[in-house]
């Protein structure tokens, strides 16, 4: 399946830092409570750090206390895509990817009782997104 933004592995390695590459292109996870946007409340949008596509807005960011930026809905339902991730034995998770470039963003969890409008928690790596104030 093709993405709107397609780059070779070499290009991604050139454009991203090692840690960005590890998360975005190799589905890594930053350590909990270490990301720069975990507690950010500033109004604005969050774009994909790999391709710049708008993914989330500050209005849907909520305090989950899980250690990663958490959103209850994407900015646009077409902005992200999901697929089943079975990398942890016995516990399938739903992986969240940028719909424009296919980069890994994090995972989405359902029914945790956070009391948000969707009952979803998009658990996103800070390093996979870039905050743009006030947009
Ligand atoms: Zn992207």
UniProtKB/TrEMBL annotation:
InterPro entries: Met_Sox_Rdtase_MsrB, Met_Sox_Rdtase_MsrB_dom, Mss4-like_sf
UniProt catalytic activity: L-methionyl-[protein] + [thioredoxin]-disulfide + H2O = L-methionyl-(R)-S-oxide-[protein] + [thioredoxin]-dithiol
Gene Ontology BP terms: protein repair; response to oxidative stress
UniProt keyword annotations, A-Z: Oxidoreductase
Domain spans labelled MsrB: 9-134
GO cellular component, one term: cytoplasm
Domain of life: Bacteria
Enzyme Commission designation: 1.8.4.12
Any GO MF annotation of the entry: peptide-methionine (R)-S-oxide reductase activity
PANTHER family, alphabetized: METHIONINE SULFOXIDE REDUCTASE, METHIONINE-R-SULFOXIDE REDUCTASE B1
Protein name: peptide-methionine (R)-S-oxide reductase
Organism: Streptomyces harbinensis
């Amino acid at each position: 399946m093709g993405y709107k933004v397609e780059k070779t592995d070499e290009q991604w390695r050139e454009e991203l830092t090692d840690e960005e590459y590890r998360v975005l292109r190799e589905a890594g996870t930053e350590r909990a409570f270490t990301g720069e946007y975990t507690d950010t409340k500033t109004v604005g949008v969050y774009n994909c750090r790999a391709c710049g596509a708008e993914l989330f807005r500050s209005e849907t960011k909520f305090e989950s206390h899980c250690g990663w930026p958490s959103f209850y809905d994407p900015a646009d339902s077409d902005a992200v895509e999901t697929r089943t991730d079975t990398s942890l034995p016995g516990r399938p998770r739903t992986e969240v990817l940028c719909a424009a470039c296919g980069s890994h963003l994090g995972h989405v969890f359902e029914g945790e009782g956070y009391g948000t409008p969707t009952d979803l928690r998009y658990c996103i790596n800070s390093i996979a997104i870039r905050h743009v104030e006030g947009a």
